């Protein structure tokens, strides 16, 4: 021991006077700074007769679901990767969504003949996170970021308004989740969690948005002048005000699409 130096505990970082103790896997908090980090909480759990595990994070994620007898789960069309032979997959067509902007096609997996296993997979190199809903907790999710949910979760299409639509990478419609249960969200690349304290503001490029607390206030803005946005290729941003949580994706879908076009993918 050196005089004036903190005692080292096996497996724990050395404490420097005036510096926060770093816990493995947890970001160092600076006063006034948003709590930012990869959110690894609740990667397994159970809700409404569905026990789940999220495997192979961060960009190759799948959701392994164990359904009890007579349990069911609502999933995005095309997200079923594999399942036990005794489970039943049913497709749904919601004609009213053709006019409201929501997804027209979805699926439901049920277990009428006893317990079974279901594997859900996003369509691209993606991460998956669970959202716990209870006690009035509500989330806003990008329409393409919804992967599935237990039946107690209510899913509704929400209109952002024309002004936000013209600037937002999420389009005119987003999904509002409420009720009780668990929902799974997905991304392009990994999912990054940002937690804002009361009064804190944080700016996120719209193309990187996945989901955010429904109670948060936000506004969509251009970055600087129109010419600045055009030259910088940054487009528009979303300015959130805490308290609340925002989930963002580490890759930009619009940039990926532009790159694929530039190398001739999809051309005849």
Question: Can you put this structure into words, describing what you see?
Answer:
It is built from four helices and 21 strands. It has helices at 97-100, 162-167, 226-232, 253-262; strands spanning 35-37, 44-47, 50-55, 62-67, 72-76, 80-83, 88-93, 105-110, 116-120, 128-133, 139-142, 146-149, 153-159, 173-179, 181-186, 191-196, 201-205, 209-213, 217-222, 236-241, 244-249. The strands form four sheets. Strands 1-16-21-18-11-14-13 form a seven-stranded antiparallel β-sheet, with no helix packed on it. Strands 7-8-5-12-15-10 form a six-stranded antiparallel β-sheet, with no helix packed on it. Strands 2-3-4-9-6 form a five-stranded antiparallel β-sheet, with no helix packed on it. A hairpin with a 2-residue loop joins strand 2 (44-47) and strand 3 (50-55). The radius of gyration is 21 Å and the shape is globular.
